[in-house]
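Letters spell out the chain; backbone shape is given numerically. Take this protein:
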Amino acid sequence: MFKFKIVYQSKNTKARIGKIITHRSVIETPVFMPVGTQATVKAMPPEIIAGLGYSIILSNTYHLYLRPGPEIIAELGGLHKFMNWKRLILTDSGGFQVYSLSQFRKITEEGILFKSHLDGSEHFFTPIKTLEIQKKLGSDIMMVLDTCIPYPSSYEETKYLTDLTHKWALESYEYKKRHFNNKQAIFGIIQGGMFEKLRKESAKFITSLEFEGYAVGGLSVGEPLEIRNEMIEISTDFMPYNKPRYLMGVGTPLDIVDAVIRGVDMFDCVLPTRNARRGTVFTSKGPLSIKISDFKSDSEPIDPDCNCYVCRNFSRAYLRHLFHSKELLVYHLLTLHNLFYYAKLMRIIKQAIKTESLRELRNNLAEYYHKNNLD
């Protein structure tokens, strides 16, 4: 029920175009997944997201476990029906949220003890429990529980946490063999921090387990771009050619193209939606803050080269007015524009793979999207 097929391989890079085939739908890669943490891509109705061309979104196990709870979602027909999304859903395991949101957490050999950021109640995630939660949610692609390794970390700490990820991955794999058919796919996650030796060991171990796909984890945690790209390159060197490769939580336009060049197929990131709510939009000439005073009487659209609904109908001056007036409409409009930009970017990337012009595209993006210009 879950298959991956390569339909085009670049001759000059590791980039490829593929198809993920499931019982629900077929999606073409490279693919970007908007983040719908709490069963919603913020400020966006699902039919509009689908209308932009998105075929898969990401939701979060940690948040949905705490509220409203997997049992309630299961009773109401599963996550697809609950949020009225008819296409694919990937759920992450919640490990990163436990790391980033919980004021108290303790990692043990068996799992992660943490307190809810909502009410302080205590919970314990194990590799098996996170899979059982995701099974109740009914997502199409599930992620195993892993450890989030801070940057920088010592070699010893990184090795301990990477070994723990391997232990949990093996537990997840054994549980998968006993309790899952391949209608719900499960991806393993490569860790190893920023150490070449540990990255290679993790990639070899995780890919020795027959998951439906594999993810590169533990990046975009503050490391320099050059190190990140090196870790991606090392990881994809060991990832099977005939399985989808997913880079977790990395997603500026330049980041995406850099990773596609290195053979990555799937991406998610909060940038297009979170930045929209903060007044930053993506354009063909780089990021733009709608908040600045220069736009107070500017009749131009966000991006004159964009034909999205927002750019066809509203001026920078109007959008700036909405933002400073805290009008709710602005969050929808800016998010709509940013998701339109990302959908278009993925189409441009696919075309560049076919025409062997991906490095040229990368250089063009680097002119406008560079480190720290999205803060």
Notes: The mean pLDDT is 96.
